[in-house]
Fold Methyltransferase family protein.
Amino acid sequence: MTGRVFGQGPSAYDAAASWWSERLSVLKYPEAYSGLCHTALNGHLLSRVVDIGTGGGDLARAAIGACPSIETLHLVDTSARMLEAAQAALRSVDGPDVTVEQTDMELLQPCRSFDIALAGHVIEHASDPVLALRQLAGLVRPGGVLLLVVSRPHICQFPIWLRWRHRWFSETQMRRMTKEAMLGAVDCMPLAAGVPARTSRGYLIAVP
């Protein structure tokens, strides 16, 4: 979705944009993202947010619901149609000013200005996931955080892999890669029951 892709490129996500969020809704990902954001972001005063690989904007919507303090939201994706879908979905949400940028994550300049970087199922598609973590951290101010949703090992990954050619990482692997990226403390959080719980984990990572 963003970064130099390991699996499918932007055209595959352009083709999926018309049904992406509906499919995630059927699988209960929006509810899982909402629960994750309320758990992970409780007590955080966030103003500036960047969502890398936003897709249909589902993780961004969950963050807005959990943090009324968010004032600006910058959506990034390689797929123009995904960005259009995310903008359309967020028009119905009261809250932050929304801007969009169609680009690869690796082309973003480190700005260290956002309070948090969101990335739902992004680093699994990067050719170098440690570098992807560093690139995400480069967007966030010192003392900010990353909130990631990452594919975890489970037999359910194989039919997903047939379509998207992604990777998946255990908690041990994520902690090792985070350490290699020279980031801070890591909190690993399960997602709600059902498909999200089987396929994904949430990670809240401190940015030094």
Remarks:
- Confidence is low (pLDDT under 50) at residues 1-6.
- Residues 10-206 form a domain with the Rossmann fold fold (CATH 3.40.50.150).
- The radius of gyration is 15 Å.
- The chain is about 40% helix and 25% strand.
